[in-house]
Design a protein that fits this description.
The chain has 324 residues and is of the alpha/beta class. 34% of the residues lie in helices and 16% in strands. Helix 1 crosses helix 7. Bound molecules: flavin mononucleotide. Flavin mononucleotide binds next to helix 1.
């Protein structure tokens, strides 16, 4: 049976959780198995930037994190066991809340399929069995829900786009998204029939998409968005007619006709969005090259760092030793 995971990051029975429950319960009616997780019930520590996970993977290990005393192993089991995921967040300062971003950082390089495929390729080319969990390569679909208190969308502008930082490393195909405005009070969304119906539709979309081949998946969001790959409207604009999708990193051509602005992204650019495996592989190659260029200088880096050691950081008296 297909498994659908719902992850809520808001208040207990708050607006994002109500919409998530509505979506999951509608999905369950189609015959999928559902499970609800609340991020506030999990203790997830921030990534300390040691890169042990990536180094371990590239040298034949599983890529296990050095942080042992939190709920990440529990969460990983849930994530690797699912075929679809619905992420639901409250909007905090135009973005997903900080604890959601903490989780995204822990998923980042360690769960990136391009890095894992490379690790697997190296292991197999050397006649070793790869220790990367094969469940990382399972196709998954996803959808996003964001709820804000503000009545105007400018206060939710980076919420849905930034939710892609959870899904793109694992190549989770996001097929739908919704955002609800004007909901500052906890749970008040139960009075919003339009939002509840949209959440049910989102739940059914994900349930129906789970297990389908990639080429049969369709975008079910209400708006196509400016970017045809991630469907976001957040573009970086400079002084030229070329713009860059802030989520995908791909470049498009800005055109103006009869007062209407359009952005066209070539097929070539769409193919190297960081939401694609090819785009992630390009980034992997860039990182390997950049590390290679700089690694010889690390002796000099250590020598120059000494001068900063006399300036001690101030810590609260009961501060635990920081691993980083
Ligand atoms: C720290 C904080 C920052 C917030 N910032 C925004 C914001 O930038 N834009 C917005 O629309 N709502 C903002 N809100 C309101 C919440 O998004 C809103 O109350 C939402 O319904 C909370 O979802 P929940 O009930 O699922 O927790 C903020 C709330 C808090 C606590």
């Amino acid at each position: 049976m297909m498994k659908l995971l719902g992850l809520g990051s808001g208040r207990k029975m708050g607006n994002s959780e109500v919409l998530l429950r509505e979506a999951l319960m509608a999905a369950e009616k189609t015959g999928v198995k559902i499970e609800l997780l609340r991020l506030h019930d999990l203790h997830i520590k921030p990534c300390i930037g040691c890169i042990s996970c990536s180094k371990d993977q590239q040298s034949g290990g599983t890529g296990e994190c050095v942080i042992k005393d939190d709920d990440m192993p529990f969460f990983n089991e849930k994530l690797l066991g699912c075929d679809g995921i619905i992420l639901s967040i409250p909007v905090y300062i135009m973005t997903p809340p900080g604890h959601f971003k903490v989780l995204c950082d822990r998923i980042g390089p360690s769960h990136d399929v391009a890095w894992q495929m490379e690790a697997k390729r190296i292991a197999e080319s050397e006649g070793r069995e790869s220790k990367i969990d094969p469940r990382f390569f399972k196709p998954r679909v996803g959808a996003f829900i964001a709820v804000g208190g503000a009545p105007t969308p400018d206060w939710l502008s980076l919420a849905l786009p930034l939710m892609n930082t959870f899904t793109f490393p694992m190549q989770i195909e996001v097929i739908d998204q919704m955002q609800v405005l004007g909901s500052p009070l906890p749970g008040q969304v139960v009075l919003n029939d339009v939002a509840l119906e949209r959440a049910r539709r989102l739940g059914r979309h994900v349930a129906e998409a789970m297990g389908k081949p990639l080429e049969q998946l369709e975008w079910k969001g209400d708006e196509p968005g400016t970017c045809p790959v991630c469907h976001s409207n957040v573009m970086l604009v400079g002084k030229t007619k070329s713009v860059e999708c802030a989520v995908c990193g791909i470049r498009g051509e800005l055109k103006e006709r009869n007062g209407e602005i359009t952005v066209t992204f070539s097929k070539e650019q769409q193919a190297i969005s960081r939401l694609t495996l090819a785009g992630k592989k390009l980034h992997f190659d860039d990182v390997v090259e950049t590390v290679g260029k700089n690694i010889q200088a690390m002796g000099e880096v250590q020598a120059r760092l000494k001068k900063y050691q006399t300036l001690k950081a101030v810590k609260p008296s009961k501060a635990k030793k920081n691993l980083s």
